[in-house]
Amino acid sequence: MANEGIEQVRAALEDIYEPPIDDDAGDDQGGGFGPPRVMPDDCPVVPVGTHDGIFYFLTTLGELRGLAADKVANKHIVAMFAPDSQYLIDTWPRKKEVKRLDKETGEEITEWIVTGWRPDDVAMLLMDVAAAKGVWDMREKVRGRGAWLGDDGALILHSGNHVLIDGAWKRPGEYHGMVYPTAPPGPKPAGNGVAGVPAAELAPKLVASLRARGVEIADDVGAGPLIFELIRTWNWARPDIDPHLLVGWIMCAPFGGAFDYRPLVWITGDKATGKSALQKLLAYLLGDGGLLQSPDATEAGVRQVLGQQSLPVAIDEAEADANNSKILALVRLARLAASSQGDLLRGGQDHKGHNFKARTCFLFTSILVPPIPPQDKSRLAVLELGELPGELREPDMDKREIAALGAQLRREFVDLWRWWPKMLASYKNTLIDNGGHGGRVADQFGTLLAAAHMVLNAEEQDASEIFAWGDRLSITTLAEAADNESEAVLCVRHLMSTLVNLQGHGTPRLVSSWLWQAAQPVPDYMMAGTAAADEVHDLKRAANKMLEKIGMKVIVAGAAKAGVGDDGRPKPVPGRQYVAIASKHQGLARQFEGERWAAGVWSQALKRLPGALANQTQRIGNAPAKCTLVPVDVLELGADDDPLVENAAAEMERV
User: What domain range includes position 69?
Assistant: First the structure.
């Protein structure tokens, strides 16, 4: 009976169909939409859609304007048509019939004169056409200044007053369903007139300054190699690596919106290392309006200024402070912008939610790098500066010269865009296959290296050189990857470095010290001496009792616990020592107080350690408790893992 009912429901669902909409219904059938209303072909204002009671238009100047229904009237309409407001009178004139006497004949003449325009008719047409375009979300359909990726993989550049799209520079407007509104003009790639001019001719002062320092500059040097030699004059901690990475960021910055991944760079160094000069160089290279630069920014401020733009952001003086909340909010925004995994949702003063999608390359400079969470560290290239010798001065960086070189670099990148996917894949593959990195680090450093290659070695496709970068930035040598530790490792290291500080139990000691005392192997020859053996075992038991007071104890798995449980999960390995760590315990709560692993979250992290077993029941402090069993041998207790020698027992303490 039940099966028959299910079959009836299934059959009904299969018969569901959506009836067609009859747009041509006659008046006796309730009417229809009628013929679509359209703007005149030469109308300078373009309706683009509506959403939540707001009607959106591209003005005569190409600006995106959103107006509520009651604002689509009179002066607001004139403002949208300005400076071509005469179009309103010419196209929708308001006329008045007047009579006058003909001076020659004396007869009364009737004629029509234009007295203005018809605001109600224009408002109705504007709103009708906007509504006919459909519900329209400006956050999804608007692309501000910066670079974007076309559906066909082509590079799109919005420079404010022009858009490079479909292989040509066009006026801002609506293209392929996306709106590119007019904005203040920003930097463009170099034009055909200077595209092939040697960099030495574009920047003679800079070339002379570098040659005076002993830097060899060829007369036919390109813009990329010249900027690379300029950047090398700073005192980098990794002189063979950091200049390449910074050139890579400079090339990624204007085009970040078109990338799948936008790399993040942090330049750090003490006073007198040239950080301010580097910021000036970046501003000159990226051009006026091509870089959002600030020494005192907030996360909300950056979001609001960026809006729908994909311009790069440089934060100067991003120093650590008491709680680091301000800078960490910016770092989090930079991390989310790196991969743009969905929209950022924020509340507003209007009590409505607002979403924001960041597609921006970030760069920070500071004396010290603040403590950054692991998920953010893996997206960082940290470039460290050393102090410059006293006799060295800032290179001669003329703004017009550097700006011309920046335009040249952008032109080269645009011309070589077709090679970008292949170049990026080559560097990511070598970092994974030869460098031993995961995908995230390969995205970060592969993007930087590929972008640098585009302007430093554009004509060279030397596979051996690309392969060599995998060795140069291998997982064993790359400092940024060395700090990229899992939450499990960070959690257990925090626990082991905390003090067991219980009233009436002597001098506080580290958890790791008590663990060493409780888990240290005892050699067979000590067991022959009964007194020594008893003393050592007493000390080990004493350490375990102390650990139990904070929710832990060391156990040795027995043979009965071997194999796989009924639920398919592995059981403890017989004879292997484990630290049983309670999932809930007041003592552990104190050890993790104020940390992100507090409130029992530590058990989520610890179960990810190699060989760890979650949800195991052990008696801790004479009461059963759910625990995570962590193998002692993965705790990396160091030299203390060595077996006890005869005098080692003296180093232990009794409780």
Answer: 46-141
